[in-house]
Every structure is written in C-alpha cells, then in structure tokens.
Amino acid sequence: MNADIRLALPRLHGNAVTLLLVAMEFTGSSYCGSYRNGRMEGKGEYKLPTQTRYEGEMKDGMFHGKGVLYFPNGSKYEGIWEKGICKQGNYTFSDGLQYQETDWDYCDGYDRRFYTERCHGLKPAGESQLTNEDPPQLIPDGCYDCRDGFYNPNTRVVSDYEGSFLRNADEEEHEWIVRSCRKSWDEFVGRFSGKSSPEERGASDTGLSSI
Predict the structure, then answer these.
(1) HSE value, Cβ hemisphere, 13 Å, CA-based, for 40
(2) Which one, of 94, 89, 88, lies nearest residue 70 by Cα?
(3) 61 and which of 4, 9, 39, 46 could share a cystine (Cβ 3.0–4.6 Å)?
(4) Between these two residues, 7 and 191, which has the higher pLDDT value?
(5) PANTHER family annotated for this entry (predicted)?
(6) Domain co-membership, 21 together with 88
C-alpha cells in the first residue's frame, strides 16, 4: 500500500465518522460507541428518533451480536443480531412480564386478569382495574390510549405519554385503535344507546314522552 494512502486513511476515516454523525443528527438519531474504518463497530448505544435505543454489539454499521432494544414505555427486547436482523430474542413488558411464543397463558379466554392482578391479587368489586397500570393513564379529551401513547383520531397522530410525536397511524392501525382501545369518554350501549340524556332514557323506559 502506498505510504501516502496509509497516512491519509485515518483522516478519511475521521471524515466518514463526521459525515455519519451529521447524517444521524439530521434524522434525529445518535450513536455513542466505538468505530472501525469510519463505521460503527464494537460496543455502543444507538438511539432512534422515537427514543428507542439499542445497547450492544455492532459490526459494519449494523446491529450484530448480542444487544438489547429499550423502548420508551419501559419494555425491552433482548436478542442476538446478525447483519442488522434479529435471529432470536425475548421480549419483556415494562411490568416484568416475559412474552412466550408457546404456552402463552396471559389474558386468554380462561384467565382475563391483568399481570399486576396476577401478581398482587384482584381488587374488591367496584374497584376493578381498567388497565394493567393502577391508576390508569388519564386520557386527553377525544383521544385513545393505545398503550405506547395517546392517539388523536382527528389528526391520526400517536404521541407518547409526555406529548412528543411518535408516528402517524395508517388506516389499519386507526381502525384497530378505534375498535379496541380505551377512550376518554363513556358510551352507553344496549337498550339505552342513542338516548342523549338520563331524563330522556327515564321517560322512554316508563312509557312517558314530552309533549
């Protein structure tokens, strides 16, 4: 190898690192760790714009080896990565519950208790938990709690519990949230649905109506 090229390589690698840092700053990401030949390699921490962060081994600018993804809601995914692809791993919810691909018995058709209820017992009638967290998150008016933040169906935006932007919901996620998630308002269902006030409901049930 030409001596001039060998002398220039450290500067070239330094420039590559600088360009990488500028690119990550532009996208809102950041990296703190070791480099090799101007690329992320070794052990480090990579933080995504969503505040999800990866801590572990890197190679050739990709997740490679053992590493952990930490999510903003407190959950984590521990895995073994190969060229940026996770080959195997385990997901742990923020409350400590570990997900199992087989023999999963949490919140199935036979046992609907939340994990915290399984750990600490059921509360008396009238004080039943609405969510795994107790007390539950206070949902802003007109929004839904989609478990990693609040969803505004008018703007189609999911924000974290601190109010920071997470993502725009596509049509499939919008329909799932509206159908499945807890909302900030109560709805009357069954025989009283569609009646706007307790007075109207009472008059209808007794056969009385306003004249």
Answers:
(1) 24
(2) 94
(3) 39
(4) 191
(5) MORN REPEAT-CONTAINING PROTEIN 5
(6) yes
In a domain, 41, yes or no: yes
For residue 122, give its domain range.
105-132
Looking at the chain, the whole-number percentage of residues with pLDDT higher than 90 is 40
Residue 46 falls inside a structural domain: yes
Same domain assignment for residues 35 and 22 = yes
Give 113's contacts (C-beta < 8 A, 6+ positions apart). 107, 122
pLDDT range class, residue 178, cuts 50, 70, 90: very high
Quick check: 133 and 147 in contact, CB under 8 A?
A: no
Is 53 domain-assigned? yes
Number of domains within the chain: 3
Buried-state track 9-42, b at ≥16 Cβ within 10 A, e below 16: eeeeeeeebeebeeebeeeebebeeebeebebbe
Look at residue 192 in the predicted model and tell me its pLDDT. Answer: 56
Residue 179 is assigned to a structural domain of this protein? yes
Give the residue-averaged pLDDT of 109-119: 85
Strand ordering across the sheet containing 182-183: 165-168, 157-159, 150-152, 144-145, 182-183
Determine the pLDDT at residue 202: 53
**Residue 42 belongs to domain with CATH number:** 2.20.110.10
